[in-house]
Design brief:
mainly alpha, DNA polymerase, domain 1, 3-stranded mixed β-sheet, 3 strands
Length: 146
């Protein structure tokens, strides 16, 4: 039973994915036969009317121009809008446009290491003043002894 359920689910998903990638019909280049087969709600007569209008008035500039074709109004136009394009531009985007993320600013360049001196200079130590070998004694007068 589980195998049957999985197979059914796989079939449904495959069908939906194929349906979502269906090509839109370019109303400026499609023949009446192509429109009749590909567009729901458009029979051979309406498809022929679209081609006849296009040949008489030039290419369509937008999908909404189909409303100018006799026999195509409100509900029919709303139904086929997602299935048609004008030139290379799709009638409706498949996904909403997302704003581009701004690029990150470049990291600042690291400065080069300063050159190191070959041998550091040894600081000079001040010389100590010379010290006498024996401390100097103050001269004292001799006192006679009694």
């Amino acid at each position: 039973m589980k195998l049957l359920t999985n197979m059914l689910l796989a079939f449904v998903l495959a069908f939906l994915s194929v349906a979502s990638f269906a090509q839109a019909i370019d109303i400026n280049t499609a023949t009446a036969e192509q429109m009749d087969k590909a567009l729901k709600g458009i029979g051979p007569k309406k498809a022929a009317d679209i081609v006849k209008y296009r040949e008489a008035n030039g290419p369509f500039t937008s999908v909404d121009d189909l409303a100018k074709v006799p026999g195509i109004k409100g509900k029919t136009l709303d139904m086929i809008k997602p299935m048609v394009t004008v030139g290379d531009m799709p009638a409706m985007p498949a996904t909403p446009a997302t704003p581009a993320t701004p690029a990150k600013p470049a990291a600042p360049a690291m400065p080069a290491m300063p050159a190191m001196p070959a041998t550091p200079a040894k600081p000079a130590t001040p010389a100590m003043p010379a010290m006498p070998a024996a401390p100097a004694m103050p001269a004292t007068p001799a006192i006679p002894k009694p």
